[in-house]
Design goal:
By secondary structure, the protein is of the alpha/beta class. The chain has three domains: about 1-80 and about 105-180 and about 275-340, FAD/NAD(P)-binding domain; about 185-275, 2-Layer Sandwich (Alpha-Beta Plaits); about 340-410, no CATH class. Helix content is about 35%, strand content about 25%. It is built from ten helices and 21 strands. The chain has helices at about 25-35, 60-70, 110-125, 165-170, 245-255, 305-320, 325-350, 355-365, 370-380, 390-410; strands at about 1-5, 10-15, 15-20, 40-45, 55-60, 75-80, 80-85, 90-95, 105, 125-130, 135-140, 140-150, 150-155, 155-160, 185-190, 200-205, 215-220, 225-235, 270-275, 285, 285-290. Helix 1 (about 25-35) packs parallel to helix 3 (about 110-125) and helix 1 packs parallel to helix 6. The longest helix has 26 residues, at about 325-350. The termini are far apart. It binds flavin-adenine dinucleotide. Flavin-adenine dinucleotide binds near residues 45 and 55.
Length: about 425
């Protein structure tokens, strides 16, 4: 059921579950809950069909999460791998095979993707209130529900799926850890005759206007609809990050890809947004945070959609299991699934914040087809600590080495 938010005199409404935010994380939670017969309401401050600044790339891990939600990927553009570019080296890579994930990814522009997901939630029976900003209500240290549009809603559990930390997160203390890295990225759409290509393209050797290597990458993600999503992203661990001008960086990258992609003018103004990569508190009595609100963005590639889908589903599974212990149980399980990898990713981002280490790392990463394959598998979180083979070994080794090097890397981090 769809409804808009109208101010009305303060009634109290009861639900089983409340979700703040109707992006992929909130929609995944709502789909899971509604299909299990839970009386769930989602509050989305944007209108139905709102857009989200994103690269629109779905890795095989994200495709697996969408499969789990039984989402038909027919409207998306299938992607078979990644073209990795560093300096003069180009490697065309297929997604890793022999993992528990599918052999394909996708590009699905967020305006259509997010609308599709929230519509599936509505079809499943979730109530979605668009143009309705919600804030958690707290009584005696416990989140009892939300206040939205003049009404109060109560439920045993409220899921914070509000994206990169804003007012709702602030109220709950779900802030970014100031000692941890984060990302900023900008994107635009443009027409290209190469829109139907089946490889994502990532240029890992970005430099800012002063020639400083940028830990991050420029991307061309073909959408299969006549357009490509072009963007650049950077990690806060680089020297001069505060002064980094993303529009200028995008222009520099566009000047490299304009000719080979026969790129048309931007179809809209380039838009930038944050990539949160940490969160000091992701649960408490009566609430849990999922997706970007919990800082679940992969520091190695900026991917967040998959983590939003997975954590959204997991939060609801914990709720279905036992609403009284859901928040604690979720924190434990989501930590077991993501914490170690994301911690390694954050340490890695301090490493590549050092220009010399970044240059050396890139040389190794794309040096041979085999190391490039491993790089793709590790960066895409398409392996885990139990994965056999070279990629699994590299991840375990990186985990150990970075754990030891971390204090030094942080102490010698590039001045912000
Ligand atoms: C430029 C850029 C490129 C990226 N590229 C990729 C990529 O290619 N692939 C990938 O996987 N990830 C990418 N990401 C990351 C990805 O966009 C996010 O990780 C993802 O959107 C997280 O989903 P979410 O549901 O947690 O949050 P969001 O998608 O941000 O959704 C949160 C929703 O909550 C709503 N909301 C916020 N506050 C309230 C409130 N108080 N009340 C009601 N509603 C509220 C917002 O309007 C929003 O709709 C990129 C990010 C950026 C910035």
């Amino acid at each position: 059921m769809i409804s808009l938010c109208r101010w009305q005199a303060g009634g109290v409404q009861q639900r089983d579950l409340l979700v703040i935010g109707g992006g992929p994380a909130g929609a995944a939670a709502a789909i899971r809950a509604a299909r299990a017969g839970v009386n769930v309401t989602v509050f989305e401050k944007g209108p139905h069909g709102r857009d989200k600044v994103c690269g629109d790339g779905l890795t095989p891990r994200a495709v697996a999460a969408l499969d789990e939600l039984d989402i038909d990927l027919a409207p998306a553009h299938r992607i078979d791998g990644l073209r990795m570019i560093a300096g003069k080296t180009t490697r065309e890579l297929a997604w890793p095979s022999g993992t528990r994930f599918p052999d394909h990814g996708a590009v699905w522009p967020r305006k259509r993707f997010d609308t599709h997901l929230i519509d599936v939630a509505i079809e499943a029976g979730a109530e979605v209130r668009f143009e309705c900003e919600a804030l958690p209500t707290v009584e005696a240290g416990r989140v009892t529900g939300v206040a939205a549009g003049g009404d109060t809603y109560t439920a045993p559990l409220t899921i914070l799926a509000a994206g990169a930390q804003g007012a709702a997160a602030k109220l709950l203390g779900a802030a970014r850890d100031p000692d941890e890295p984060f990302g900023l990225a900008i994107r635009a759409y443009a027409e290209t005759p190469r829109h139907a290509e089946r490889h994502l393209e990532a240029c890992l050797s970005l430099r800012d206007e002063h020639g400083t290597p940028v830990p991050g990458y420029g991307w061309m993600f073909p959408a299969g609809d006549g357009t490509v999503n072009i963007g650049v992203g950077a990690l806060s661990t680089m020297k001069g990050f505060k002064k980094l001008n993303l529009n200028t960086l995008l222009e520099q990258y566009a000047s490299i890809v304009r000719e080979p992609w026969t790129l048309g003018p931007y179809l809209d103004k380039p838009r930038a947004w944050r990539l949160p990569m940490s969160c000091i508190k992701r649960h408490g009595p009566g609430w849990v945070a999922v997706g970007d609100a919990a800082g679940f963005v992969n520091p190695m590639n900026g991917e967040g959609i998959d983590y939003g889908l997975e954590s959204g589903m997991l939060a609801v599974d914990c709720f279905l299991d036992n609403s009284a212990t859901a928040a604690e149980q979720y924190d434990l399980l989501v930590g077991q699934r993501f914490d170690s990898f994301l911690r390694t990713g954050r340490r890695f981002s301090f490493l590549i914040g050092h220009p010399l280490l970044l240059r050396t790392g890139l040389r190794v990463a794309v040096g041979t087809q085999t190391t490039a394959d491993i790089t793709l598998a590790v960066m895409g979180n398409l392996v885990d600590s139990t994965t056999p083979g070279a990629a699994g070994r590299v991840l375990r080794l990186a985990d150990r080495v970075l754990r030891i090097a971390d204090p030094l890397l942080r102490r010698t981090r590039a001045a912000p």
